[in-house]
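Record type: ASSEMBLY
Status: queued
Input:
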Amino acid sequence: MSAPTRVPRLVEQFERGLDAPICLTWELTYACNLACVHCLSSSGKRDPRELSTEQCMAIIDELERMQVFYVNIGGGEPTVRPDFWELVDYATAHHVGVKFSTNGLRITPQVAERLAAGDYVDVQISLDGATAEVNDAVRGRGSFAMAIRALENLAAAGFADPKISVVVTRHNVGQLDDFQALAQRYGATLRITRLRPSGRGADVWDDLHPTREQQKGLYDWLVAHGERVLTGDSFFHLAGLGAPGALAGLNMCGAGRVVCLIDPVGDVYACPFAIHEKFLAGNVCDGGFAEVWRNSELFTELRRPQSAGACGSCGHYDSCRGGCMAAKFFTGLPIDGPDPECVQGYGEPALAADRDKPRPRVDHSRTVLLKLDRPPARPCNESPV
Amino acid sequence: MIETSLGWRLHPQVAVRPEPFGALLYHFGTRRLSFLKNRTIAAVVESLAEHPDVRSALSAAGVDPADEAPYLQALGVLADSQMLVPA
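Status: finished
Output:
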């Protein structure tokens, strides 16, 4: 929206942090029926310390008091929690809107009808290829069919405007128009986000992240499709490829300032792509979420002016703000240097040099994992719960 | 554009969160977020329902008629995105 009078840019105000997040990501469980190669949260097995229904409800009460408008629920596969629908209903009854990400597992015709009857729940189906071949190489055999079945069920039930959520990779970046067509077919909106080297993504990022040429194509595609495609504002590292403001949305890093992540055991991290001790602000069980959000050392530090570091002399710094903190950290690059996918190419020498990729202590992967570019030995239909 | 002779109010599914810079608006139906980038526009939006038309809301919030263009434009954007509806 256009500003009536000149005030400090919203981005500058947001960088100082808000009293409450605008929205937050809440991974409800680390349990998952799939084992995607790039899983941000290294999900698979349920954590025995997972928050109880009552603890989750207490968080929702707090979010309501803080006027957090909505939560992005994910996991793991959040719908495998037996109390998933109970929590969704509790949140929406308490004025906390719900958007949840699912691989489609539990979106049966009955569930689709139930969702279509309500108004406060948004559904996001994850799909990382517009064809089964491309999708299943990353998400596991059968996962494309599962997602499409969910979309069909939602469409048949009359659920309005689900989202198809795509992580852009080297192999699907050429399918953007196909994804768009797929979205159209199911009355859905396409949402594309950046591949992060977080969680298991650290192991595959070097092979999966779009090439520099592909990034340029992606940027042009985004500018051409503007607001009709959702991005979670995740491509701000590409902002320097064109005129300021050409990319739709608020293009800044909101970590610990306007967004954060609550994980299944109540740990609060700066952002959904930062499950690592270094970005751990605290736990909701120690005095509540608001306490962590407002007073944690980490978030206080993130809300102070950040050093442009090695990027200070670059003319594009105002556009990209040095890129994504998590992308730098998990690829083993300095936080105050260029993004690994810096559009000026400043990340490339750093990537080519010896790197030490930090590993988080937290890993819920099952022992047998999908390997990239090789079909799994058997369908990934085994439920961990 | 917003029809200034009409009375307007927030859509019943819109929540307002006051912020130091102005306010955040969230529409639970369209699931869209909007930013009100100063406190004057926030005050105008929150008081719209108490006024018979847009101009009286603007003047009550202290907006000089000579300065009203950007406010009308902002209200027009809000009306277009269903954040505001005719009262």
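Annotation: The mean pLDDT of chain B is 93.
Annotation: The radius of gyration of chain B is 12 Å.
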